[in-house]
Amino acid sequence: MSQARLALLDGSTFFTTNGLGDTDTADDGLYFADTRHLSSWRLTLDGAELHLLSYDTPQYYSARIHATLPSVSVGVNPTVSVRRDRIVATGVHEDLVLENYSDEERDLVVELALDADFADIFEVKDDKIGSRQVAVAVDTDTITFGYRNGDFTRATKVVFSEPGTLQPTGMRWAIRLPARGTWTTCIDVICSDHDGEHKLRVGHGGFGRLQPDMPQTMQQWLDEAPVLHTTFDPARHAYHHALQDLAALRFHPIQGCVHSVPAAGAPWFMALFGRDSLITAYQALPFHPQLARTTLDALAMVQATQVDDFRDADPGKIPHELRHGELTATGRTPHSPYYGSHDATLLFLILLDEYERWTADTEVVHRLEPAARAAVAWMQGPADPDGDGYLEYRTRSPQGLANQCWKDSWNSIMFADGRVADPPIATCEIQGYAYDARLRTARLAREFWHDTDFADRLEQEAAALRQRFNTDFWIAERGHFALALDGGKRQVDAATSNIGHLLWSGIVDDEHAEATVALLLDPKMHSGWGVRTMSSADHGYNPIEYHNGTVWPHDTAIIAEGLRRYGHREQAAELAVKLLEAAAAFGYRLPEVFAGFKRQGNKPVEYPTPSSPQAWSAGSVLLVLRTLFGLDVEGGTLRWAARPAGFDGPMRLENVPVRGRRHTVEI
Known about the structure:
24% strand
């Protein structure tokens, strides 16, 4: 069995297989709109699995696989080659080509085994797949798998261009391959839901040249981005890879929605995630600002308008996650959408302000004023249920998330002795976001909505929050901010990367800034590749625990920006460079997360199951470049650093989009 993994993407459609192009694990298959439309796709030749030679992915949606007969060994050179050209484009198109390089004809049996279980993506991810009655119909050249549960319907049609023996389990071809001859067949897979068949977008431009269903093609996307010139190879290569990954992750999250936004990551999170999309769009602002506009518009479309305990919804709240699978459609899960995020609404306000600073797009600021005011009303009301001035969360849904900050695993909010905090929980970085969101919205209210009273109130609230926070969250005996306040208003005292987000938001006063920076850069926190999510000195630390000791690239990138905000540019650049070095070690693609072991050798230790590509990890490369260049827009003017930091040699960024003009930045 081949150990290489292959994942091809087209929005929320993706196909995961081994390097041969076959399914061989419990979670492989073709997924469309959060449902697995093919659970088995396995090609054999004379009853045996092929021998993989190599595969290539010319685009994120296409692959070319070269294989040969399974009889290959030292001294045995098979004379038959197999090529599979695959494109994922809402469905799948695959060309299968067999070539005979001998002077003798060959009789071969080629079989493609197929099955469809229509499992919900949550079932596959959690390894809890329920049984379903799947109908199978066989026609002259087509197998159709179908499933219905009330109004929820899905179908998978597989169409073959060459005749053979077609059965409910797949296709069998008995072929006579002429000497020096070629045999070819084409296979199309078409997915259907309650809206009918979704057209397979192939047939234009040849293999690997399909253009995505987006306002911009991949080449247009790359051409419109700023051009980076640097002698630091990790930065140059990681930047190009990040742009490609962000293009690959674009999709339309809502039926009929023209907005393309970044999905969170492959394979399990090819969906709209409020927090992930907002942070990714923020990271991309100096490079592709339109990503912020489409993200803001799409999320405003699904902003909550009423109380819904099952979905953790309150008026004004920006959603956490939107899904379209059977469990959601039939009401068994709350993701239609689910609103269990206590920071996405604040990040929406932060991004709206930052977007205007970079683009001068006042039309969006005026159009989204009602959404922004609703977000502020949520922040001032339901987000703070006990009225103590701090935003705390507790799920009201039987299927809700226990933690609704970015570290949303069940045990991520932990005391230094390893005890898990009890809700309701007020994490420190959410208070920082709330502070920043108030100040930014105040600027919009004063300059564009002409509501001085509203702006004044928000600024007064921000000042009061900052003063109280620096007292209530500071742990004097440990010399750092608390991770959170628990349900009893006790300080959750683990040392974590969350405190770096406080620098990014600006809520930290001067008295505590130096100690915060020192802790983040201490070897107990800084692994040598990035900042650990939890200090190695605390009891809950585990270098391969999802949120309690690993390194998350987006987390470290935000911390680097926070260091820069507080004047620690050299230290910020050090973090940025270490993260780019990590990207180089991972083939210039930063994964979602990697292990927090101390840096030894030339590559970070991998986390067992990271998403890759992942949106805010790709965006992290863009954010650390902003950090290295020192980019900001102040008073409508682009500012940057006067000298390089982090490594020797000049850097230049050409074609930076700022407020309708393009700029060249050189340090």
